[in-house]
Amino acid sequence: MRRTLFVGFALICLATVAGAQQPSVSVAESEAITRTALNYAEGWYEGDGAKMASSLHPELAKRIVQKDAEGRAELGQMSALALRDATAAGSGTGTPPERRFKDVRILDVSENVAQVRVEMSDWIDYMQMARWNGQWKILNVLWELKPKPGQSVVADAAVIKRPALDYVEAMASGDEWRMERALHPDLVRRTVVVQANGRSKLLSQSAMTLWLLTRDGACGAAGHSRRPNREVVILDQFENIAFLKVQTADTVEYLHVAHWSGQWKVVNVLWAPRAE
User: Fold this and answer.
1) pLDDT at 248
2) Helix ranges restricted to H, the chain
3) Residue 241 near residue 65, CB atoms below 8 Å
4) CB 139 within 8 A of CB 129
5) What is the rounded end-to-end Cα distance, in angstroms, of the chain?
6) How far, in Å, CA of 271 to CA of 274, rounded?
7) What sign has the CA pseudo-torsion 222, 227, 230, 233?
8) What domain count does the chain have?
9) Which of 58, 80, 164, 202 has its CA 20 to 30 A from that of 230?
10) Average pLDDT for residues 234-257, to the nearest whole number?
């Protein structure tokens, strides 16, 4: 079992890319990414389940940190099917036309993944998209409600970056305890690869798998033992969630982090091979 995990993680961790430095996103690519985000937003407001579904990967993970009746943090989750059905049921159609915000900002694009921020009527969506069989699809969403007046949260940048540093340096050093400290228990780490037949394939890891493989030194064996680039970039931060970018020796890692029970934790990761 350990050997199977080790080999599987080596295939995921060790990413090699030939060619020139990643160019800026083209106008056509930018329009395609934006259209995917708009199909999501417009589908919600219009009650158009098909339009919403067209923007989503079938294994979408849409998440929010909220509190239960006892005030404890919990992770609310919605699947692609649940979001499509809620949209088709008209959950968003009651939004007045003047409040149907759909402000789309592309934060970063690397290889076949894109990071997007969308402002909706009452919340902010952080979207992680991937090119899937030639089309841009939303894989992960972390969202946060807009605060009431006077209740906005101010977070320290160094504190927000700490879980990202723990995450990438644990990969390099094999320190499973730093990895555990960085991750939310329900973390999902994903990438999309193109198979020999040209079809896309989704590779995923859980927090437990990542912890075990860090403990067993699989990341170091796959190339992450080379010192990572320790620069963590905050692409965006809104209230209790943030969008981060960090590079390892071989990959570009995009992290959704959220404030969870007094600590910032990595909730979602979408990564791509690092262009040389």
Assistant:
1) 80
2) 2-13, 27-46, 49-55, 80-88, 157-173, 176-182, 207-215, 218-219
3) yes
4) yes
5) 34
6) 9
7) negative
8) 2
9) 202
10) 93
